[in-house]
Amino acid sequence: MTSTDSGSTSPKPPAKDPWDLPDVAGLVVGVLGGTGDQGRGLAYRLARAGQKVIIGSRAAERAEAAAAGLGVAGVEGADNAECARRSDVVIVAVPWDGHAKTLASLTQELAGKLVIDCVNPLGFDKKGAYALKPEEGSAAEQAAALLPESRVTAAFHHLSAVLLQDPAVERIDTDVMVLGETRADTDIVQALAGRIPGMRGIFAGRLRNAHQVESLVANLISVNRRYKAHAGLRVTDV
Asked: Residue 223: left (phi > 0), alpha (psi -120 to 50), or beta?
């Protein structure tokens, strides 16, 4: 009598360790909007951790100047299209008002790529920062709609550009909320975050949950203004 006939079942494989993350040291990371504060800061931190980084900008000359200005080996500059073509993973750190236009112009170059959207749709008035809600639900979901052949994730929203760019800061003690549809992709993003001393990448759900993650930046801006701080996030009991 076979095991099927006897009604016995095979034991389930053990659950995967959530901290068993891939080796990402060999990946080339492109940063669209790498001449802005957030993009430049992320490029600096990843390059300082040993990652090969390409800064992208609408003008190659600006990107090359930004790359040289970081003073870290392994950083190059290129126009956005060349940056996207040559990178394995592409971080989108462009201003919100240029988000859709930039991605729509790069659908071919970003096809098949792992895209990490870190854009926060925000407005500002006399009362301070407030969250905007795109028609698609979030910046990350807008990216996914515009890039149907890319693997879109969301991460790196809550990082202080001031701390990222400060060479005197050795560690940035914060967690990075990572969202996406496929575990293999979010694992890669978590591993990239973990290369920066002090950071952890924490899985925080699918892209449909990106709006509240992006929106929380408005609250952090209020915290920073009141307390003259560079606040980040920590997830407890994980």
From this structure: alpha
